[in-house]
Design brief:
This protein has 364 residues and is mainly beta. It is built from four helices and 20 strands.
Amino acid sequence: MDALSPFGYVLVTSQRMQGMLLLVFAKYFHLPFLRGIQTQTTRTGLGGIWGNKGGVSARMNVFGHSICFLNCHLPAHMENSDQRMEDFESILQQQQFEGQAASGVLDHDVVFWFGDLNFRIEDLDMQVVKSAIDNNKLSTLWEKDQLNMAKGSETVLEGFHEGPLKFSPTYKFDVGTDMYDTSGKKRKPAWTDRILWRLRPMAQVSNSMSKRSSLSGLTSGTRVSQHFYRSHMEYTISDHKPVSSIFTLQFPYRVDMPLVTLFVEDEWTEISDAVAKFKVVPNFARSSWDWIGLYKVGFKHHKDYVSYVWAKQEESDFLRQEHQVRANHEELPKDSGDFILGYYSNNMSSIVGVTEPFQVISIS
């Protein structure tokens, strides 16, 4: 949050299970269009008792399109490829979301699946694998990668895409170095750390595109473009190297009408300026626990407000189109700066309306 908030990114949600951590950030002005946010965890370690293995997920509707992020840590070791697939299927079966049209992970318009998936390189011995890495002949290893091999036989993997593995295997390294495992175990290098994506089954990829294409689309017009897929060799604190990717999602339409529209003066220079007017869309379920927060531009999450005021709904409000609340004078910022107002919905557990930035000039 400290690193991303200066760039306008706000923590939307998070889910943790022992060593697995999933964080979702968004630019603050996108927050009103992220709805139906839910998270799930599934333990698969020790027969479902221990959370060292399993999956954590976060789902939401983004501008009207359902997206799910699934972070998995699957069983280790060369011989456990089948167990990895079984655990993945178990995670998918157990992760069900409430009150959504997309109830399971694979029911979403777009799914991103990533993590320490622990698939290994079969058949080839250590020297052959290291020689291919040293001579940058990684393509000779792809066909022996267990995940690539499973795509041809495992129904649950249908529709999952992955960019070309143009980076060296990210496991296993001597901690603190760029050297592959020199311990007595001498683990064979492997692409254990992966990022894949999937569009709903109606996805039809153009025949002119290769199986490994980084571009795919739904018949309805949703498209996912992968811009890069890389590892970060400079990090040495783990026996794995981190992997990252950047995608662009293109949707055929956007739900871009906020549930709550806030109105505010361009500047607050007097106490009388500290008023927020707002109107809500029809059928929006307000709560007496809703509130409007005053946030300094660069805030980190929805509770990182400077002050707030309850957006209580009185009986006389039901027929009114527009409402207003006045900020508490004693809680206004003493220093000048750029701020926004955000309407937090208690029922939706998220910010559903924001203003453009405005200036507060040392109100006293």
